[in-house]
Structures are given as C-alpha cells and as structure tokens.
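User: I'm new to structure prediction. If I give you an amino acid sequence, what do you actually give back? Let's try with this one:
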Amino acid sequence: MADSSNGVIESVRVRPVRVPLPEPITTASGRIENAPMVLFDVTRGDGATGSAYVFTYAEDALGATAEVGARIADAVAGHDAEPEAVEAMLQGRYRLMGVQGLVGMAMAGLDMALWDLQARAAGVPLAVLLGGTTDPIPAYLSLGMLDERAAAERAEQAAADGYRALKIKIGWPDAATDLAVIRAARTAGGDGLELMVDLNQSLSAGDALERCRAFEGEGLAWIEEPTLAGDFAGHAAITQATDTPIQLGENWWGVADMENCLSAGAGDLAMVDVMRIGGVTGWLRSAALAEAHGKPLSSHAFPEVSGHLLAVTPTRHWLELLDKASTILQEPVRIENGDFIFSEAPGAGMVWDEAAVARFAA
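Assistant: Good question. You get back a string of structure tokens that encode the predicted 3D arrangement of the chain. For your 362 residues, that looks like this:
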C-alpha cells in the first residue's frame, strides 16, 4: 500500500532576501534599486520540491510578508499538497480578514511553489502540465522613466536586439516632456517596434484624461494605468473618451477585482500580476474571465512563471520582461529575438543560486 503521507506538504521554507536589481527602476513615484522578495520552497512527503518568489515592492513590507508566509507555512504542514485544495483551505481560513495585501501575496507565493512542485514531480514544464505547449512567447522589454536621449538609445537597442515591443514609464510634470520622450523612442525604434507607455497611476482622473488625449495620434500600443488603479469609473471615462487602448490589471487583487473592473467598462486590455491575482490558481481563473470578456491578456512582472501561464491563456497578448530575480537564479529568463524561450527544466524553471541567496539574505 502506498504511503498516503507522500502526497502531503512536509515543510515550507520561507526566506526574505533583498536583491540588487540588474537595472534600477525609476517611476513617477520614485526609484527602486533593490528587489525585496520572499522565497518559498515547498517539500512534499515523497521528497518532491517546488519554488517561487513574491516581490514586496517596499522594503518595509519584507519582514512582515515573510512572517505571514511562515504562519501560513505552519497552517498547511501536513495538508494535501494539491494546489487548489490548499487554496480553498486558506480562503476559508482568512475569509473574515480577506486575502488582499500581505496575506494574498504569501498565499500566491505558496500557490506558485505548489504548482511548480506538481510540474517538477511530473517531469514536465509547468506549461505542459497545464495543457499548453512550450512554443516561444512574444515578450516586450519593460523600462523605467527615461529622458529623450535615453529613450531613443534604448529603443534603438531594443529593436536591434530583436524586440518587437518596448514599454517606457512616463508621468513627467508636463505633457510636453512625455510627448518628447514618446516621439524620441518612436523615431529611434522604427516602425517595427511597438511602443507602450505606463503612467503608474500618477495623475488624477481629470489630468489623466487630458494627458491621454494629448497622446492621441502617437501610435501607442497602449497607455497603462493613467489614474489610480482602483478608480474604475475614472478609467472607464478615459477608455470611452480616447482611441488609444487603455491597459489595466496589474493591481487587481483577485479575480473578483478583475470582474468588477471589466464590468465597469474600464480598460481595453487586461494585464495580470500572478502574485496579486492569486498565484497560478488565480491566473487560470483570470484567463477564463478575460476570454469571456474578449480582453487580450498580458502579464505583469514574474516572467519566469508568467511565460508558462500565457502558454495556456486563450487571449494571450504580451509577456512583460521586467527582470528582478535573475541575480539569484541558476538559470535566468531566456529571451531570443524578442521571444520568451522555455527552459528545458521541469516546473517553472526556477532553481536558486544558493550562494547568491545567502549573500542577499535579509
């Protein structure tokens, strides 16, 4: 008789790290030089393992997120390691508190690690486990705020490197500066390079509408989060008043938030952050919802696992290449000619460089 304990969670290791970014990220809200992350490593009774990470944005939240993760690790020890069963149990445990914020982040990290475990145990890439293929996925290069000269240089280099799309963060104090940056990148990148811009919620709804109108005719592939992420009515008004596609979604906390946004008519395009949406389990639900609403779905950050999830997304659009974790990975994300190339390793391909993890332990 098989040992039933082989299918349960034996342990969850939770480790906070502070990792220098390969390239600092500047937004309208400030500059990020280090990536505060919490690593999750799950071990099943039969010895199978899975790994994932979450990004806490603010270093002030790093310790608290790790502590919540450790409490959740205690709660799931001895539980069936099937990801959806764990997710259902934790949803019940935290129903009165809610599963946004730090609790949601820690739950998503555990969920991603459990799915990684399932795929590793099966000896296949996560995309294949989920019913997809490992064909290349179109990726766009995601950059921070740049002045005109830097925008032109980076756009020219991106096109030379084979990228077919580039995103630049904007939100300078005036529309004229934003327009100058957009035009510099557009000219240098050429007609073969699609250009997206991200305002990172930096404007009021009224100012955002004026700014977006100023961008009409610039040939942008999308304008991302022009006003506060939770202002669905404001985004709906901007969406209706402009021709340039409005991209929303990286700040949706779970599928219910996504449903509320789409039902409000806010945004033309959808972008899911696998951490905020609820891990792999939440992404799969969001992909079905995007299909039901006819919304092209792109990823936000976490390219290692997002590539696998886009492979099974019916309305797949773009993978965002925003590298945070390569410094601590044995095999960083691989991009060739603007495409995400799947690792040959089973799972989501995330294996820690333990020496680097030790060096950047928080």
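You can read the tokens as a compact description of the fold. Here is one thing that stands out. The longest strand covers residues 9-27.
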